[in-house]
TrEMBL record:
UniProt KW Transferase keyword: yes
Residue ranges occupied by any Aminoglycoside phosphotransferase domain in the UniProt entry: 25-264
GO molecular function (one): kinase activity
Spans traversing the lipid bilayer: none
Lineage, broadest ranks: Bacteria, Pseudomonadati, Planctomycetota, Planctomycetia, Gemmatales
Keywords for this protein: Kinase, Transferase
Protein name, per record: Aminoglycoside phosphotransferase domain-containing protein
Pfam families assigned to the protein according to its UniProt record, in alphabetical order: APH (PF01636)
Gene3D superfamilies: 3.90.1200.10
Length: 326
């Protein structure tokens, strides 16, 4: 957490007054995007509002587009409502970044979801996707192109790292060495498997893109919240399903059939076979590990949150080290 902030900036709470005026603020756990989130509780301790400070490079146009997509899905009870502040504006600039305010959704993510939980989550994703219109023209999946670009961009560095991985942090170094091995072993096969899809026209619509397991909240078996819309783009819906289902593939391989059957049964449109979703999930593990190697070894990003980074790396490795084919 950012120890230099005792509460959200005054300009932000004033912008969203009277909604934010009488709340008690607690800084929420940080992710890895560079965003800051505060939880606003009422006098009885019930969380009501999430104040989000977007990463400093997020533009007003980008935030407004995401707010528009969220408004299209606002009829769904698990989608956070976006609140308007002064003069009806849903974002305000303060302390070097844009801020917005959304309804705090109840519940918590599940570490080991049951088959019924997986089905419920994918039904929720189907309802969410159906709120957004399909693009008029088919186009290649951006997620495929992004994966190929990432994997090809760092081949030479991978070769160097495979011989001698530079030290970063004692708690992370063993995990990073394993990551280098996994990525080096799978890069060529991943690119080969992705290439046939690189130019294939497919349907597209707004997608969350970062629909990790920890971003779907449950309470008593029901989906009560979907959070973190900040990475949204227009792409193929399979990228959301691959990210979510891939997070639990280390539990059992059947999560893909469980989830995709539920998604289709609930009206979700997929013009691809299940194997494409699995391909995106498996290549996504490899690219995510490579992304962490770039962040920590090349860019030398701070490792003050080494425990959280280690947990993320360990999870990715648990999934990626099971890969036998793409």
């Amino acid at each position: 957490m950012n120890q230099f902030l005792a509460r959200p900036p005054r300009a932000v709470t004033e912008h969203f007054s009277p909604l934010a005026a009488e709340l008690t603020w607690h800084q929420a756990s940080e992710g890895f995007s560079g965003a800051i989130v505060w939880r606003g509780d009422d006098a009885t301790g019930v969380p009501l509002v999430a104040l989000k400070g977007w990463p400093p490079d997020a533009s007003a146009e980008r935030v407004q587009q995401i707010h528009y997509w969220m408004s299209q899905a606002a009829r769904l009870p698990f989608v956070p409502s976006v609140f308007a502040g002064t003069h009806g504006h849903t974002a305000v600039f303060a302390d070097g970044r844009l801020w917005d305010a959304c309804r705090w959704v109840p519940g918590a993510p599940l570490i080991q979801p049951t088959e019924a939980n997986i089905r419920s989550a994918c039904e929720a994703v189907a309802h969410l996707h159906r709120c957004w219109p399909l693009a008029s023209n088919r186009k290649p999946c951006r997620g495929v192109a992004n994966r190929i670009d990432v994997l090809t961009a760092h081949r030479r560095q991978l070769s160097d790292w495979n011989r001698d991985t530079p030290p970063v942090e004692p708690a992370l170094d063993p995990l990073l060495r394993r990551a280098v091995s996994v990525v080096a072993r799978n890069t060529d096969a991943a690119i080969t498997a992705l290439r046939p899809w690189a130019s294939r026209p497919l349907l597209s619509r707004p997608c969350l893109r970062d629909l990790r397991g920890e971003h779907i909240f449950f309470r008593t078996g029901m989906v009560t919240g979907v959070i973190d819309f900040g990475a949204m783009i227009i792409d193929h819906p399979a990228i959301d399903l691959a990210r979510f289902l891939g997070d639990f593939s280390a539990l059992r391989e059947s999560v893909f059939s469980e989830g995709l059957n539920a998604y289709r049964a609930c009206g979700g449109v997929l013009d691809v076979p299940d194997e494409f979703v699995q391909l995106l999930a498996r290549t996504g593990f490899v690219c995510s590990l490579l992304g962490w190697l770039v962040r920590l070894v090349v860019r030398h990003e701070p490792t003050v949150r080494a425990t959280a980074i280690a947990a993320r790396l360990a999870h990715l490795l648990a999934c990626a080290e099971r890969i036998t084919h793409f």
